[in-house]
Amino acid sequence: MATARSKGSSKAPSKSPAKRRWIKWLFLGPLLIVLLVQLYFFLMVCWYAQFNPGSTSFMRAQLSVLRETNPDATLKHQWVPYDRISYNLKRAVVASEDANFNEHYGVDLKAIERTYERNERRGKLVGGGSTITQQLAKNLFLSGSRSYLRKGQETIIAFMLEAVMSKQRILEIYLNVAEFGRGVFGAEAAARYYFKTSAAKLSTAQAARLAVMLPNPRFYDKNRSTRYLERRTSTIQRRIPSADVPRADERP
């Protein structure tokens, strides 16, 4: 009888290590996936530091929507280097979207705090508080959905961008991939679409208007003469001379 019990008990411990391994991977598996995703984003950021992106997550999403009704639809987009984008537009975008662009490291904590308080008052997650770097992170890799999880990933990528790229490079990519209207991406396409000119020749008034359209470009593409758009454009136009932007000869 004693021998039988000893044989039975000897089999029980063999299940315990396998169970522990299963529990370990239950926790480590998701962590490993998260780390691999972050590694992918970091490698892509390093690539974009040297090479221009051909498309972005936002571009692909918008093209997919356009092709639902028109299979032959294409995006309006043309890359231009930093020194061929008017300083009026660079200053206007900084003045309108991120006045502290040259000073922060990807995240404006005060702006985030104000946005969080506004979210709490309204009882829902609304836009705002994102720096140009965060907006670039979202445009390149993420979606337009609003959630704290996506915001967290956006912030991580923003720190990667700031660690790898110069401010000039961040602004150059942003101005070339930002959405300015339905199927319109980048400063050059926007300048030609709205004003029949090049990004290099945008006036202060034209640049200010494009900058003000950035938070809701598809709406302003259809509604180009709203009272808010006119008032905000005048405000940004006055701020353009004092906006601080990276110079073309800046090095990383």
Record the SSE blueprint:
Blueprint lengths: L1 H10 L3 H36 L6 H13 L6 E2 L9 H11 L11 H14 L9 H10 L6 H17 L2 H11 L1 E3 L2 E2 L1 H9 L8 H10 L3 H6 L4 H13 L13
Parallel strand pairs: 1-3
Antiparallel strand pairs: 2-3
Helix pairs in contact: 2-7, 4-10, 6-7, 6-8, 10-12
Verbal overview:
This protein has twelve helices and three strands; from the N terminus they run H-H-H-E-H-H-H-H-H-E-E-H-H-H-H. It is mainly alpha-helical and 252 residues long. A three-stranded mixed sheet has the order 1-3-2. It is globular, with a radius of gyration of 24 Å.
Residue fraction in strands: under 5%
Low-confidence parts: 4-9
SSE string? HHHEHHHHHEEHHHH
The SS-based structural class is: mainly alpha
Adjacency order of strands in the biggest sheet: 1-3-2
Assembly state: single chain
What profile does the largest beta sheet have?
3 strands, mixed
Described by the principal axes of the CA atoms, the overall outline is globular
Radius of gyration, in angstroms, nearest whole number:
24 Å
Helix content: 55-70%
The average pLDDT is 87
Total strands: the figure is: 3
